[in-house]
Give the backbone structure.
Amino acid sequence: MEPEFSVGDRIKVVLCTDEHDPIPAGATGTVTHWNPHPLVRQLGIAWDTPHAHRRLMLTLVRDGDRVARL
């Protein structure tokens, strides 16, 4: 089975549920870390400009943050 994400994959934000400092839908970046644990599923991303200074780790859960591979 192919992994959902791999380090180096290019992604685009579909939805970010961080209520304090969300990344806007459409933001893009490169995967730097992927934890596929079924209950956690954390995705680390090196964001492209203008969000390159951000270090937000997305936690992918049902009805939560969603990204798409480019």
